[in-house]
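Suppose you are handed a protein chain with no further information: no name, no annotation, nothing but its sequence. What can you learn? This example shows the usual starting point.
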Amino acid sequence: NKKKWNPAMAAELYTLEKTFVGSDLVGKKYKPLFDYFADPATTPECKNYFRILSDNYVTDDAGTGIVHQAPAFGEDDYRVCLAHDVIYKGQEIPCPVD
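A reasonable first move is to predict its three-dimensional structure. Written in structure tokens, the prediction is:
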């Protein structure tokens, strides 16, 4: 978001290595910060987890333009995960909260 981005301050704090548009990242996989659902032995469907998705409800004019998906806790999250085969209708939805 260019409105909130302060290049002078960022240059003091960080070294910018490369820039991307969001659409270039869609479909890329990433290593999760926490491995709760990353083990195929205990969560076989995890092959569809931990990848970058896109949807129209995420914008950069009211935040960072990046959100995490928690299909057990939000209608949009559920819809997006269902549309991208992260979860399937009828399956138990992953939930890290006890």
